[in-house]
Amino acid sequence: MTEAETAGPTPARAQTGDRKRWAALVVLCAGALMAIVDETIVNVALPVIRRDLGFTQSGLAWVTGTYLVAYAGLLLLSGRLGDLLGRKRIFVSGLVVFTASSALCGAAWTAPVLIAGRFVQGLGAAMMTAVLLGMIVTLFTDTRERATAIGAFGFVQAAGGSIGTFAGGMITEVAGWHAVFFLNVPIGLIALAFAVRLLASERGTGLAAGADFIGAALVTAALMVGIYTVITVEDVGWASAHTLGFGALSLVLLAAFGWRERRAAQPLLPLRLLRSRGLVVANVAAFLMAGSMFGFMIVSVLLLRGPLGYGARDAGLAMLPTPAVIGAISLGLSARLIGRFGHRSVILAGLALIAAGLLLLTRVPADAAYALDILPAMLLIGAGFGSALPAVMATGMTDAAPEDSGLASGLFNTVTQFGGAIGLSVLTVLAATRTETLLTGGSGEREAALGGYALAYAVAAAVVAAAFAAVAVLGGRVADSGERVADSGGRVADSR
């Protein structure tokens, strides 16, 4: 062996390795962005899709609903498969599935074809997104670098929906609804080429190490039924036999999954994960934050497009300050904030900013001036999510052992998507119900609509306040340890 070989990596090689890691992060975030953007990018195009493919009004909801069912329902299983078969393999497979199904959706000639394509898209999105956090914490073991990388993923998570709303309006107006889906094809192919080259291969622990297929079937069914129940509430009502029946079925399946995990030799969700206070608190906070964020996005678009009279393009532009601020903070500032003040303090400050922004939106008047009545709230909410979400994700992933990082990542994303679906449905139903009540009481259409949206924003602020209380009371020192280092075995140890 030569002296050069025994001396270790040269500075040039180390620099090349650094560049490759950051390039790999870009590929991972591109995959996540495609998955999250596709939750909302199609919404603005729905009226045109209905006309072209002959959807009924109730059937149209499944263009979004089918995607959410598959996406949220299959995240946990996909995360575990990443641990067993290798996270790169699952991510690349998901990218292939997502890209191919996007082409199918863009070429859809009937309503059933589009619905089927959206379900497969959701499957691909789940496979890509479930393993991302696990891959990030493996790539970046340095505390500050990991915080920066997680901040990038936090930006994608928090801003993807707003970006999708803006992009959907612009693309539909310029090129038609087919282009909303076809756009994913070249992006997906480019990402696939770089993913194969840049992402490190890993063997995984093998199916024999944790292939709890019964548990996987139970939790996937429970989540799918739960998401289906939530997204159909607006049509059938909360107290209907449909909602109560399917809601009860989802809870029974979830209870059966818990029973199975306590007895399985190789459980899908090892209960040791739930002994980590940081992971539990982070997932609670993520669930509540996602509910407020998804609800904020849809209610804000309805507010702008409805009583305030914005067009599709202008509504998308009006939403842009939020993702812009999220990006500026999560990509450039969040790592320094976490390093200086600790996870817990950053989370609490961010949640306070979000709640303040939502409360400002409860006071939007009928003659609202954007710069005075809307923009300040958009900036506060962007600053809050940009700082809080990366800190929440870092807290949740800190205590996960390397062999469980894919599962922990899948759990976090499952909780986020499920919280988002519930928040979206609850807040839109509350807004609609309040509007109908005000109309019955003699209010004008614009005033009634504003009253409905004001209630939705107030409830969203209360949800954020609940997240604040959970972190403040339950977080303790685990969520406040901002300085952590990785030991030689890959596990994270507190440096204090």
From TrEMBL:
Show the InterPro entries listed in the entry: MFS (IPR011701), MFS_dom (IPR020846), MFS_trans_sf (IPR036259)
Its transmembrane ranges are 22-48, 60-78, 90-109, 115-140, 147-171, 177-200, 207-231, 237-259, 280-303, 315-333, 345-362, 374-395, 407-432, 452-474
| This protein's UniProt keywords | Cell membrane, Membrane, Transmembrane, Transmembrane helix, Transport
Which part of the chain is the Major facilitator superfamily (MFS) profile domain? 24-479
Where does the protein end up? Cell membrane
Annotated membrane topology: Multi-pass membrane protein
**What is the name of the protein in this document?**
MFS transporter
Native organism is: Prauserella alba
Lineage in the entry?
Answer: Bacteria, Bacillati, Actinomycetota, Actinomycetes, Pseudonocardiales
